[in-house]
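Run Catabolite control protein A through structure prediction, thanks.
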Amino acid sequence: MREAVTLSDVAREAGVSPSTVSRVINGTARVAASKREAVLRAIERLHYRPNILAKGLAQGRSLTIGVITQEISSPYYGEMLKGVEQALEGTTYHPIFASGHWRVDQEEAALKVLVSRQVDGLIVMDGSVPEERLQELAHTMPVVVVGRKIPGLQCLGIDNRQGAYEGVQHLIELGHRRIAHIAGPTSHPDAIERLEGYRAALEDAHIPFDPALVVVGDYMEQSGLLAVEALLARGALFTAIFAANDQMAYGANVALYRRGIRVPHDVSLVGFDDLPSSSYFTPPLTTVRQPGPAMGWEAARLILALLEGRDYTPKPLSTQLVVRESTALIRSSGALAAHLLT
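Sure, done. The structure for Catabolite control protein A is below.
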């Protein structure tokens, strides 16, 4: 087995001192052009690779960024994590991912693990860890929070209320007035804001809010299916559904399909997120796009700036209504009423 090439080997090959090699690699001081070229040629001949970990430890850093997501398997969080990875690519930092599963105890456990690993910075995506805990951590390392607003911390997010408003407004413009809402968990700030946007759009259109048209889900596909089953079981009449995320919209579509209720002929359907699979949904899903990869990217670039002590202004993040084939002008609620009577 070939022994690893050391800095001393490079110095010997280049005919310079180890400190000169170190200065060339780190760029910490001026080195004569002839010596610099000799070092670079030696590095290339010997295929030398600096020990980044050792360098980081010497500087008191682990060169890692802790990232707490709520569900690594979630397509939504997967898009954000992809953005984090892309932003850190080519830097000396690498991400360490951990899931909180929307449980405070598991989020706290993930925090403890990351802190024990001596991560240099922390990105927290949503979650329910108390604000005071994150504010306390920010005294020991840079912290960036995505999807929450916490005083004193660097926070990134979108306007969930406005995004939901635009999704429901689109349905109203198509003539729908009986619009059901499959909401996210009541403990989630983004779900609360999307419900507020739904209600605001109805109010501005002078459509009375009907609590019987709102069912709470958990952002997973099955809860969207069960929500539609609950609406139909209670005899609720509706011609459109606004789901608080795409995954629940997928489940809602399955429930409607099993009842013979056609999208969008009988019921229009709008989601929220614009996951990659929503373009290939049947029919392709009208949804409110939020920039998942961009949020991950901006969070990572911001944490890098904090670590390097430089200013960085994240690019504005906004939602966008993407109209596809799952919504249409209202025709009649007769088909749905017939299904409710059978």
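Residues 292-308 form the longest helix (17 residues).
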